[in-house]
């Protein structure tokens, strides 16, 4: 974060041909973006969307409305351009990359054992770290992984506390019996790993999944390159929460793209102190809500960097 | 509205590679758009943004934080590409047109006389009607007119009832004394024209402005061409409200682009039964909030018309 660029952007914002504050959150968003890009008049020309996919041993407990083979089928759909995130990436000019993480080797069922070994979680974090293009100027991380709302609920509960039921929702659409099973599964995972998961990165290892760890790695890498990040929904936010819990301020380069329909997402965002840009009832994952928010960020930056000042336009400033 | 296209779009939506409902409001938006464009798989390639500008006799009452000459100065800014709406139109691929309506002849001060004669309001409605490009596939109407939140508040109060204070806000930023003056001005206008304004189009004539009438004309013309419309903020919504009050269903081809920070906008939208797509604290006018919502609509249509079906992608549908 560049405080000089931030001050320059704030000064510029005050001179643009509009009443003070009339662009609302677009003004804050443009100034925040300028501060991370190190210039008072930034552009956004190279958005990157990265989708990480992983499989989850906990699916054996019957926590999802979809069978686990859908993960690899959807990866093929991403690669062939057929998913929602393909359309949204194209609509907002983003490069899209897909990383499937050992889909043939699901994580361990976290009600029986830690989801990942130390080696596995480190490998997933590294995959995420290395997936970030240092020349990108904004990053969206998305995911695909049947069973991963269960994993995300467990990670959020570990990081923020509370009961399993506070964090567990319907995901892709389980019925009441499924929700009850899922909540019980989360509670059993929290109990089994109670000691280890006091450390948020151990929570990611014991309860998370490869795609969650990869998103965390990518978000951390973006920070090291001063690339602003837009959070997607519940699973992405749970992965980010592990960074937030591990180090205060770790998400200063991050905005919340949208509020998901997955019930506990609001609770995660509130704990992260992030106000979502959009609230349109999405609950798809894949980075879809964040990619949609690229449009808002694009508009904010276009106004900030493209508008005339009062002096340039010869407009009286009230 | 084409019910066959709507049914086709609903059927298509149910086959796309996502859990049912997982794209939230994007799904409804795409189906609504398809129904107006008459095809189950629509595209959005020709957005039109039209800015109408007018001056207001009621400015003599000290209702704005800005002097009236800012209207013509901002029209020059639109024409030279320096305003927020220029950047947003460009960012979302919209053609932008500007119509300045008799800026040298402000409307009459509505606390003294009807703002417009019959001839004047008809001319403004026609300007709006004729400004719509029949080949556009979505329309944003925006406005510029120092004093026009006062006019819009009066029109909204006339159309929906209630007290002047329920509809009057700070506009571009008047202080407490200005707000009190403005509320009194609205109340006096409502009292003076109490009989005539029982008819919503007479409310537009007696209390509105040329740019409000032009927006109403453009929104009506769009309906006749099956062009969906995105409403902007308080002033645009007040203009649209006169159509809604004049004829039930007159705004079926319209969505609310955003919720403005102008306090009474929420009240107008609630009376219109429209749920805004965005809520980012904008209060600029110029069509800015609606233009930003073009991004949401673009994303919705891209997903609906571009995604693969379960069958096409070979994905199990749960």
Keywords:
Nict_dMeBzImd_PRibTrfase_N (chains A, B); nicotinate-nucleotide-dimethylbenzimidazole phosphoribosyltransferase activity (chains A, B); alpha/beta; five-stranded parallel sheet; homodimer
3D structure, described in words:
Chain A is built from 14 helices and 5 strands. Chain A has helices at residues 3-15, 25-37, 70-80, 84-91, 118-131, 148-160, 164-167, 176-192, 200-207, 210-224, 234-246, 265-272, 288-306, 310-313; strands spanning 47-53, 95-100, 138-144, 229-231, 254-256. A 5-stranded parallel β-sheet of chain A has the order 2-1-3-4-5, sandwiched between helices. Chains A and B meet through α3, α4 and α13 of A and α3, α4 and α13 of B.
- Determine the fraction of residues in helical runs of chain A and give it as a percent range: 40-55%
Q: Low-confidence stretches of chain A at least 5 residues in length (pLDDT < 50)?
A: none
Sheet with the most strands, sense and barrel status of chain A: 5 strands, parallel
Going across the major beta sheet of chain A, what is the strand order? 2-1-3-4-5
Which chains share the greatest interface? A-B, 60 and 60 residues
How many strands of chain A? 5
Mean pLDDT of chain A comes to 97
Order of helices and strands of chain A: HHEHHEHEHHHHHEHEHHH
> What is the count of helical runs of chain A?
14
* Approximate shape of chain A: elongated
What Rg of chain A do the Cα atoms give?
A: 20 Å
Oligomer: homodimer
Termini gap of chain A: 33 Å
Strand content of chain A: 5-15%
SS class of chain A: alpha/beta
């Amino acid at each position: 974060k560049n405080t000089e660029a931030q001050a320059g952007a704030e000064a510029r914002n005050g001179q643009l041909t509009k009443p003070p504050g009339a662009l609302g959150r677009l003004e804050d968003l443009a100034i925040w973006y300028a501060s991370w890009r190190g210039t008072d008049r930034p552009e956004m020309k190279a958005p990157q969307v990265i989708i990480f996919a992983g499989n989850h041993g906990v699916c054996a407990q019957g926590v999802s409305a979809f069978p686990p083979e859908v993960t690899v089928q959807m990866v093929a759909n991403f690669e062939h351009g057929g998913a929602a995130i393909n359309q949204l990436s194209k609509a907002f000019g983003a490069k899209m990359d897909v990383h499937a993480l050992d889909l043939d080797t699901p994580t361990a069922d976290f009600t029986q054992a830690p989801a990942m070994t130390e080696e596995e979680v480190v490998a997933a974090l590294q995959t995420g770290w290395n997936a970030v293009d240092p020349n990108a100027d904004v990053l969206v991380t998305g995911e695909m992984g049947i069973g991963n709302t269960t994993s995300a609920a467990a990670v959020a509960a570990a990081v923020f506390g509370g009961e399993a039921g506070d964090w567990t929702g319907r995901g892709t659409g389980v019925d009441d019996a499924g929700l009850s099973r899922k909540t019980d599964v989360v509670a059993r995972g929290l109990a089994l790993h109670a000691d280890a998961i006091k450390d948020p990165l151990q929570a990611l290892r014991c309860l998370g999944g490869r795609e969650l760890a990869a998103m965390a790695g990518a978000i951390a890498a973006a920070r090291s390159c001063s690339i602003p990040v837009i959070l997607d929904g519940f699973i992405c936010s749970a992965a980010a929460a592990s960074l937030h819990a591990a180090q205060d301020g770790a998400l200063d380069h991050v905005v919340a793209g949208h509020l998901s329909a997955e019930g506990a997402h609001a609770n995660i965002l509130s704990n992260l102190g992030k106000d979502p840009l959009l609230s349109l009832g999405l609950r798809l994952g894949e980075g879809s809500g964040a990619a949609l928010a690229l449009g808002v960020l694009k508009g904010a930056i276009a106004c900030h960097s493209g508008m005339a000042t009062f002096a340039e336009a010869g407009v009286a400033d009230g």
